[in-house]
Amino acid sequence: MSLADLELSRLVEPEGEQREAPWVRRQNTKTWAWVRRMALWGVASLAAVMVVTLIGHQLSGRSRQFGASDVDKVESKVGVAAPAAPAAPAAPAAPAAPAAPAAAACLCIFDVDRTLTGKQGWEDECPADDQVDNVYDTAYSTGTLVLSQLGESVAQTFCGSCYTGAVSAGDVSGANSPERAKILAALGGTDKTKTDYWQMVGFNSNAEVVSSLVVQAVNEHKQDAIRSMLDWWRNTMGIPIEDANVFFFDDMAINVKAFEGSGFSARQVSCQSRDPNAQLGVGGCGGVISEVTLQKGVQLC
């Protein structure tokens, strides 16, 4: 640079300012150009998003006015399946017929010895009975268990439609005995008794009964055991059984007569066959099917 040029530059540039070098000036120019391009790209992107959003809102509003044919046209253009048109509401179903009232629950309670069983060793005297081999019965004179006609056929009587149970002064050959298993099966099993627990009340007429199977009950107080048993049926098992739908069957007259005034029905069985050697007036062959009836009240032989 000549002396004249130097002097000229001093006149043009303000005093105190330093002139940028040419390479710095070129670098700043490139930087600002890049910033401008990015800004323009951002503005363009934002504008595109706004346009797409606006179009979407417009299409959404219009779609409510489209008919089925318009939707089909849109589908064909964009290649997206539109949701199926809502089905017409089904006609309301006709009200169901009211359910028939459930039949009132009934309960049949049986004595065991000489009611569901017959006298041991009386096969000839009791042809309708069935001796159960290899099952011992400790009642009275003891011996091989004999099921009476009633003991074999409870399900063939009206009691086949009722709940069942047993109240015996004996112990039905003791805990876990084969006889207890046979008697439970004769009663229809736990579907009918709702338990397989044989409760020994220890000849206590005031004992709280918590089972449908009671042993060591007090003669002439079996109605008391059944009264307590009904609380178990109603409160524990949730089965409301009315007093009038309770039927008791026993071979001994003193036990049946004691039901007078109880509100339960009781019937003496084994009327045609009696054990002449028994001092308490007990049955011989045991109960028969024809003695199990729906007759209400107390019935003696």
Question: Quick summary of this structure?
Answer:
The protein has 301 residues and is of the alpha/beta class.
Give me some keywords for this one.
single chain, 301 residues, alpha/beta, 7-stranded parallel beta sheet, two-stranded antiparallel sheet, disordered N terminus
Task: Produce the secondary structure layout.
Elements: H1 3-12, H2 22-63, H3 68-78, E1 107-110, E2 130-137, E3 143-147, H4 149-152, E4 163-167, H5 178-186, H6 190-193, E5 198-200, E6 213-215, H7 222-236, E7 246-250, H8 253-257, E8 265-268, E9 298-299
Query: Radius of gyration, rounded?
Result: 50 Å
Determine the strand fraction and express it as a percent band. 5-15%
Query: Can you write the helix and strand succession as a string?
Result: HHHEEEHEHHEEHEHEE
Question: Would you identify the regions where 5 or more consecutive residues have pLDDT less than 50?
Answer: 1-24, 62-83, 97-101
Mean pLDDT: 81
Q: What about the largest sheet?
A: 7 strands, parallel
CATH secondary-structure class of the largest domain: Alpha Beta
Strands of the biggest beta sheet: in what spatial order? 5-6-4-1-7-8-9
CATH architecture of the largest domain: 3-Layer(aba) Sandwich
End-to-end separation = 154 Å
How many domains? The number is 2
**Gross geometry:** elongated
CATH topology of the largest domain: Rossmann fold
Structural class: alpha/beta
> Can you give the helix content as a percent range?
25-40%
Number of strands: 9
What is the oligomeric state here? Answer: single chain
